[in-house]
Q: What sequence folds into this?
């Protein structure tokens, strides 16, 4: 009985604490509308959605390719088609392939090389603390991944280089397994870094709302329930009957922005500035909205070639000279 009573009291205390923290957070940070945006990748490929990897060569190519595919496709915007076998070498040139059959949005070649390793060690224990000194060893590895990206006609769009670095597990002596582990992990990291660079991603945006607007509590309940469209319709009705509140226009603009209606969001932010030109927050909202409008436009822009990149000659094979 005592244990049951203690458990129930603890649960009640946790509930009271959670309610208190939620109330304090709302008072301190204010009510907010939180939503997701789509941010273009560091290497923007426009509206491309399907990428065929026609070549992924070099030591541990399959390991790096699998990590590349997982990272590039993790957000659900890109489909990556990997070769069936590794090392992957296209039987036809890109131009021959384009004449033979339609290509996907983007074609990609990659080469993994320049593996370097470094042995590390440390010594533990001493006569001062009556322990016998012992050593442990590990291997550090680094590699580079070169990626070339082509449009459906075979023209070079861009290229990127990433590096991967990793450390093996520690042990009482160096071994070949340690070196292989370090190299494999470095290849994984290089592949993941390259995949992340070409993939759009979702980011969370949060906009603070003004409380002093008509029917705020009703609209905010809808916002917390995720019914942004109903909150917008509610405030649109209020604006039609009484359009004298800059805060209302600001809140309505934030809801429209969360719904992805950038034109309506800007119109409402402009109206808020006209009603209260001394509030700097309204101008900041337009600057932020303009930034995201440009970002969104990039996601749907036609892919235009960047400065041409000389592809690796086919006769050179999949390997390159090691740096000394």
A:
């Amino acid at each position: 009985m005592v244990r049951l009573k203690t458990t129930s009291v603890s649960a009640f205390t946790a509930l009271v604490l959670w309610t208190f923290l939620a109330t304090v957070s709302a008072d301190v940070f204010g009510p907010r509308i939180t939503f997701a945006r789509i941010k273009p990748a560091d290497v923007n490929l426009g509206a491309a959605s399907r990428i065929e990897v026609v070549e992924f060569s070099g030591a541990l190519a399959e390991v790096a390719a699998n990590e590349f595919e997982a990272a590039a496709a993790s957000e659900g915007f890109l489909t990556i088609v990997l070769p069936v076998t590794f090392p992957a070498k296209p039987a036809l040139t890109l131009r021959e392939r384009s004449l033979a059959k339609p290509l996907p949005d983007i074609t990609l070649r990659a080469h993994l090389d320049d593996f370097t390793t470094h042995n590390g060690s440390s010594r533990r224990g001493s006569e001062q603390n009556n322990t016998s000194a012992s050593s442990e060893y590990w291997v550090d590895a680094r590699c580079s991944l070169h990626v070339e990206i082509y449009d459906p006609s075979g023209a070079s769009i861009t290229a990127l280089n990433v590096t991967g670095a990793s450390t093996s597990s520690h042990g009482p002596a160096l071994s070949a397994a340690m070196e292989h582990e370090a190299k494999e992990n470095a290849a994984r990291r290089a592949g993941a870094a390259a995949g992340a660079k070409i993939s759009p991603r979702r980011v969370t945006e949060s906009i603070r709302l003004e409380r002093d607007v008509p029917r705020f509590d009703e609209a905010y309940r809808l916002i917390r329930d995720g019914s942004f469209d109903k909150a917008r319709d509610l405030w649109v009705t209020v604006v039609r009957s009484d359009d004298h509140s800059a805060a209302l226009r600001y809140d309505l603009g934030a809801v429209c922005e969360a719904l992805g209606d950038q034109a309506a969001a800007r119109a409402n932010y402009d109206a808020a500035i006209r009603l209260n030109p001394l509030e700097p927050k309204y101008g900041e909202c337009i600057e932020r909205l303009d930034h995201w409008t440009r970002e969104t436009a990039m996601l749907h822009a036609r892919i235009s070639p960047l400065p041409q990149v000389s592809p690796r000659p086919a006769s050179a094979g999949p390997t390159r000279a090691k740096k000394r």
Notes: Residues 2-29 form the longest helix (28 residues).
